[in-house]
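PROTEIN DATA CARD
Card holder: LD-carboxypeptidase
Chain length: 305
Origin: Pseudoflavonifractor gallinarum
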Amino acid sequence: MITPKPLFPGARVALVGASSAVPAQRLPLAVQAVRDLGLSPVVFPSCQEENRHGYLAASDRQRSADLNAAFADDSIHGILCIRGGYGAHRLLPLLDWETIRTHPKYFSGYSDVTALHTALNQDCGLVTYHTIMPATEYYQPVDDYSMDYLRRALFGALAGPLPIHPDHPLEPLSGGRATGVLCGGNLSLLAASLGTPWEIDTRNKILFLEDIGEHIYRIDGMLTQLRNAGKFRDCAGVLLGDWTDCTPEDPERTLTLHQLFEELILPAGVPVIANLPCGHSLPSMALPLGAVLSMDADSPALELC
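Structure generated from the sequence above:
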């Protein structure tokens, strides 16, 4: 795997809209937040309100062109997806993978950006960063824990033992230790990858999962898809992040999230840790997808190798 060069004060970073549109009033706040980090933002057309295409930031052609151009431009040192939402997986057939492979650079985002993380990790051998985003979180005041993790990811200090927020202790669901390449992200996008050329490959890897706004039965269906596709059987271990606003459709007749984990993941017999402070919530840590991670579900603890 290729670990991209870290960013530095004054680094030029592309702001791209790979998924949903950015509200017009939020864009200048996001741009200023990037400047406040000591970076020099370059706003690509997919971030502009006038290029909105329905619920998408821009047309597939424009959004893919922005990503291709940002990777190809050697004066751009990193790429920040400005927000998530929907639509990144529509871009996969349109991306210039050969140019991306030969111009590796820092890339970050989360949620819908999972589709791009998976493809960049697997097709290009590029380590990418699951972090909070300019127009979703850090255009507004953010807690110190989340901002510290963001800066560590941006500037190359994400290494060694990973500190866990004191108010969010890790919860071991199945003991043991495992080491492997970290993969995954948003459950909905990973389930949607199955049967495509960009299907998530979990073999001997540590699989991270999180989601937002899904009914319990929907999470059941997506976890079952991954289980039936052998993704839990193949992996070395599982990390479960935040499940924000994931509620039962009928609170009186439901299974709990923990029941789903017990019935669909634990039979694989691999170490499983829940309550990782990462996902659609704050505080949220940053994770380097494609890097080698060691997990100890007995302690519990996480460490980048």
